[in-house]
Each structure stands twice: as C-alpha cells, then as structure tokens.
Write a structure and sequence with these properties.
The complex is a heterodimer of chains A (81) and B (155). Chain A is mainly α and 81 residues long. Helices cover 80% and strands 0% of the residues of chain A. Chain A starts with a helix and ends in a 9-residue tail after the last helix. With 155 residues, chain B is mainly alpha-helical. Helix content of chain B is 78%, strand content 0%. Classes of the chains: A mainly alpha (81), B mainly alpha (155).
C-alpha cells in the first residue's frame, strides 16, 4: 500500500521540478519550488530521514522562498529565455 | 507589498504567531540532542519568526528588533560559543569537541549533555543572525512613495 504513496509523491516531485524550470513567471516558479521542497520533505520522512526532512521544510520551503521573493521584488519578475 | 502590510487580520495573526514560532524554535534547539532537530533547524525557525515580523511590520520596525550591529554581534557570539567549547575540550587534554574531557561535573555524560547544548545554542544564534541579515540585505528598500503617501494625504 505504501508504494502507491511513494510513486505518487515522486510523480508530483517530477511534475513540480519540470514546471519550476519551464514556467515563464518567476514568482510562480518560486511558489512551485516551495511546493517541490514540501513534497521533498515528505519523501525524506518516508525514507526515515526525519532530520533532513526538518531542514528541508524549514530552509527549502520556508526561508529560501522568502529570500527568492525578496530578490524578485527588485526585478521585473519575467524570465527572458 | 503594501496591501499585505495594511491588512488588520495579517498584522494580528503575525503578532500572535511570532512568540509561538520562537518558542517552537527554542524547543527544536534544546530537543535536538535526543530527537529530530538541532541548532541549525532551530536557528532557521527563529530567524523565520523575525523575518515574518519584518515582512509584515516593515523592514524599519524589524531593524529596531535586530539592528545591523546586533546581527554582527550575535553572528560572532555563536561562533565564539562553538569554537570556545571545542577549545575548552582541547585545554583539558581532550580532542576538539571531546566533551567528556572537561571536568565540569563528576558524571562525564552530564558534562557532555550540557556542553552539547551550549554548542547547539551557539549554532542556532549564528544561523539566526545570518538568516536575518541575509533577508535585510536582499529585501528591497521600502519605496518613498508608499511611506510618504499617508503623511502627504494628512498634510
């Protein structure tokens, strides 16, 4: 039963990763990257690495998103390529 | 940015939540030796509490809590705590961070637990200060127009 959860989490992970690098609006990319970090934290818990999951949730989904948004506020928020 | 900062709901919720986030950060730091968590995670969470406050109440109000000078002092204090504990073990004839070499208590395990907490708190203080100073450096300066407009309306 648990492998269904694993497969769906990894599927969401891949979808989030591809969406984050293809989307043009950088604010959306940051939010998708935050969702990627949250799913990654659940995957770490699933792999019994609670400490890493804690760090991933605090740094990846929390502070890094804030820092990215603060940096985006200084730009026009669109990707050129 | 200014629309978020004027919302009474967000301001009230942030004012209530910040002490609890800070308390949880202290729990994570102290509990780090015997469970998930530790100095780095706790410091990040504590820094996130103050970053949240600074985001909603403005960078200027945030700098009243954590000024640049305090940031500089805290980020070096944590390093001194960490390196000082390690060097203390060297002074008493152990290896770097070999806690049980220090004759602080009769029971070496007790000494190790106390010194490990000191090291975790040092890591937490440094990470907290560096995270907050990163946010203050990256975040854009508040524009003159948003700050001046209420005063101009009154005048």
């Amino acid at each position: 039963m648990i492998w269904i959860l694993d497969i769906s989490l990894l599927l969401f992970l891949v979808i989030c990763a591809i969406a984050a690098i293809t989307i043009k609006d950088l604010l959306s990319a940051v939010v998708i990257l935050s969702a990627y970090s949250l799913i990654m934290a659940i995957v770490w818990v699933e792999m019994q690495a609670v400490d890493v999951a804690f760090t991933e949730a605090a740094v990846g989904a929390g502070v890094t998103t804030v820092l990215f948004i603060a940096a985006l506020a200084r730009t026009d928020g669109r990707s050129e390529d | 940015m200014s629309g978020i900062q004027e919302s009474i709901i967000i301001r009230t919720v942030v004012r209530i939540m910040v002490p609890f986030i800070a308390l949880f950060a202290l729990y994570v730091i102290i509990h780090g030796a015997s469970g998930p968590g530790g100095g780095f995670q706790g410091g990040v969470i504590f820094g996130a509490a103050i970053i949240l406050y600074a985001m909603i109440y403005g960078i200027e109000d945030g700098k009243k809590i954590m000024s640049d000078k305090l940031n500089r002092i805290l980020s070096s204090t944590g390093l001194v705590l960490y390196a000082g504990t390690g060097l203390l073990c060297l002074v008493f004839g152990g290896k770097f961070l070999q806690y049980n070499a220090v004759p602080l208590f009769p029971n070496p395990a007790e000494t190790a637990a106390i010194l490990m907490d000191v090291v975790e708190v040092g890591i937490g203080i440094t990470v907290l200060a560096v995270m907050i100073s990163l946010f203050f450096d990256i975040s854009p300066p508040e524009t003159e127009g948003d700050e001046m407009s209420p005063e101009e309306v009154e005048q």
